[in-house]
């Protein structure tokens, strides 16, 4: 039994399997560490200190900051920790902020000397409870 071809059927193609969709994947480099620098508002927010007080600490030299071309302050990621230390010292000692700069410098120097002593006496002293 032969059947007559359908009209329009001779030129008809069977549907080919659909091609899989093309995915455009963009790989971005993720920073694993903290940002390289923090703005004034970020430092003030993280340390819980008003931005004007942070500016005063910069003027007194209690915390390091750099200025960009437009005059904005930029801080190292460790700045909130340094500001918290200054606030703790201010609460514990009856000193003004200008005097705290000297106290912070002396405490940093003591810490450096203790570290050097630990390195030089590594293994030679058993009792280092005084350090």
From TrEMBL:
<protein>
    <submittedName>
        <fullName>MerR family transcriptional regulator</fullName>
    </submittedName>
</protein>
<dbReference type="Pfam" id="PF13591">
    <property type="entry name" value="MerR_2"/>
</dbReference>
